Amino acid sequence: MSDELQPDQATPATNGKLALEVRGVTKRFGALEVLRGIDLSLHQGEVLGLVGDNGAGKSTLVKILSGFHPQDGGDLLIEGQRVGLSSVGSARAHGIETVYQDLALIPQLPVYQNLFLGHELTRFGPLRILDKAQMRKLSRQYLDDIHVNVPSVDADSDQLSGGQRQAIAVARAVRVATKILLLDEPLAAMGARESRLIIDLVKDLASSGRVSIIVIDHNFAHLFELCDRLLVLQGGRITVERQVHETSLEELTELMVSSYRAQLEAVSEAGA
Amino acid sequence: MQSAAPTPAPAPAAIPPPGQDRVGGPSLAARIARAFLYQRELTPLVLLIGVFVVFAIDSGSSFTSTLSIAAAAGYAGPIGAIAVSQVLLLVLAEIDLSAGQVFLLTPWVEYWLHTGGVPVVPAILLALVVAASVGAINGMITVFLNVPSFVTTLATNFILFGVVLVGSNDASASPIPLSGQSGFASSVMGNSNWAEIIWVLVITIILGLLLTRTRFGVRIIATGGHIVGAAEAGVPIRRVKIWAFVLASTVAGLVGIVDAVKYGTLDPGQTGIDYILYAVGACVIGGTALTGGRGTVYGAFIGALLLGLLEDGLTVAGISTNDFYIYVGAVIIFAMALNVQFDRVVARSKARR
Q: pLDDT digit of tens for each residue in chain B (353 aa)?
């Protein structure tokens, strides 16, 4: 699989350098082998889409990259350097930000504090007094810039719609991501207008070339619009890799279905 | 939640607006109702003033005399100190049942050090280090061994009680360093009517600002409100929890020393569990739910004052203090039920938008 990943496959948006390399990463939870040797590389400025059935290992891979789980085997390289991502903090220190499936907003905190959570602006040095005025002001500006509408930056986040909450969560990660942004189903449970908003937000960031992005999603149409390259994960392995401009929705669907069929046949043969 | 700045009402009024009849926003009644919904300290404050007025009318100057108010403050002080620091833990959805015992142990440690030849100031400081260490141990057991803090601190509560009994050889201690002396240091450290309650008031203000104005406070609310979300956003949830335990324990120990200086003797048989139960009661009366994510330090102080006034008022009025317990129970249930109903109204008004 990995021999197909040539640097010259990089799309025009990228400069050919690797932001991230995953080499032979494995992970098991008890008896369950979730990842059976994942190899992938992410070019600088690239948007990489991950598709696959539920339980294929997409979220596990993202959780390893964001420092939530340690991998059992294999190596992670960021800009060519081998790294150990032992915690969310260490992943963040390497410039990796993540937006998770389970909306990470705090219901009891207002929008602006959620937007700055983990990166609060403070005054008076070690006293760490919150600079609320500045955070409010920057939040308003920032949300205006990216066209996210909220009733007020002082609204508690449980006053927002699901889409608004997700937009804030994505906006927070986009704001602070320095190298790599991981998006685990950022469009789940969102209306068309809200999906549009998030897609534009991510595309904006991607076109700046500032960060490299990995997106997980079930919706092929969204992925075709967002991504430069798509990987299909099945049973803990990457089974299909395509540049978006070289493939089509039909081909990808066919590839996924046929490989799913092959798997089913293998299982039924093994059972027989 | 204490909202720090006057927030302009975002969109429609949070209250069902039957009185929204005039141009220029919600009616006065709606605005008052709104204030009570969002400033949870207001209800206990009104209750506190009500209790004061009732006893003042009933018992007159024997209740309003300096002596009587000092007695109320003396009662409210220890409960208040433990309550306001406990709010930080309750917002984290944690609890420290050993805080009352730390309150009692810390002056013992100071006494033992002092009788062993350590001068007063280092003895106090070392005793506070011991109190802080108890908090750190509580926090680390809770966070790293995943033992619920209710159980962790239930256990340390027994251990500390045992330490006092063993260490004191079951004999009471007196005199406590600084107690019964004249002079500034002695008055500040508790040897005056108002020293203890002023300590508690100052601590209340500091912890109130800590919770609403500092990064640590935001992280406490975030961790207690949605622990996974907080961790994903990079809040060091374990460190936050451990520091909150350290803080709660240190505050309990500090005011414990002040209380010991005030009374001059230490009784090894005294148990701390009473203190913590009243303190949690004060937190609830003050408007802090035990569900995490929300809480008010100022409310807990008001709750403690309310318990102090009740105890003192009933004594002065000549009603048996046995009645006190019935009143306390009733007030706690009333306050909690009100809080739950308030939460429901707030949630409903949010869902409507």
A: 444 444 444 444 444 444 334 455 678 888 888 888 888 888 899 999 999 999 999 888 889 899 999 999 999 999 999 999 999 999 999 999 999 999 999 999 999 999 999 999 999 999 999 999 999 999 999 999 999 999 999 999 999 999 999 999 999 998 888 888 888 888 888 888 899 999 999 999 999 999 999 999 999 999 999 998 898 888 999 999 999 999 999 999 999 999 999 999 999 999 999 999 999 999 999 999 888 899 999 999 999 999 999 999 988 888 877 888 898 899 889 888 888 888 888 877 766 55
Tell me the C-alpha distance between B231 and B219, whole Å. 10
As a whole number of angstroms, the distance between CA B97 and CA B272 comes to 9
Residues of A in contact with B10 (CB under 8 A): 151-152, 154-155, 159
Cβ–Cβ below 8 Å for B225 and A98: no
Contact between chains at A102 and B228 (C-beta distance less than 8 A):
yes
Task: Name the superfamily (CATH) of residues A2-104+177-271.
Answer: P-loop containing nucleotide triphosphate hydrolases (3.40.50.300)
User: What is the nearest CA distance from A151 to chain B, expressed in angstroms?
Assistant: 6
Residues 6+ apart with CB under 8 A from A118: A176, B233, B234, B235
Q: Which of B10, B214, B236 minimises the CB distance to A130?
A: B214
Residues of B in contact with A152 (CB under 8 A): 7-8, 10-11
Least Cα separation, residue A256 to chain B (angstroms)? 32
Q: Would you tell me which CATH number, out of the four given (3.40.50, 2.30.230, 3.10.620, 1.10.3470), belongs to the domain B41-351?
A: 1.10.3470
Contacts of B4 in chain A (CB under 8 A): 132
C-beta atoms surrounding A178 within 10 Å: 13
Find all residues with CB under 8 Å of A41, minimum gap 6, and list them: A5, A18, A20, A21, A22
Q: Report the complex ipTM.
A: 0.81
